[in-house]
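One-letter codes give the sequence; the integers encode the fold. A sample entry reads:
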Amino acid sequence: MLPVLSAVAILAAAPSPCPADLLVADPRLKVVRAANPAMDNYVVTVDVRNRGTAAQTSGVSQRLELIRGGAVIGSQPIPALGPAQDYVAAFRLQLPHESKRPPFNVVFHYVLDQKSDAARNNCTSVNDRLSATL
């Protein structure tokens, strides 16, 4: 099983032959002390990378959404990315305090709002959605 996972990881990290091909990967969770002891603060981050061979169109309209339980709980714009360029997106979550919180599921979803030049700005949607248990 491990060789299959390694092969998948290598393919996901490999450059794409597309002009621009965005990859959402490497979710991370950080717990931050809350001023209100009844709440827990979390910072959820994820990398958005252009695996393509060319830069996206300057000023392209795109965003990353954070989804929990089927509802969008956060959204932020993503700047145009050059080839092999990363953007770290971060979301702050505040949830009621639990002494031992079980892991929770989120989905990161890249959205290209500017559909007129979709083939140039993100040639495939294969890597646009990432589910994570944090």
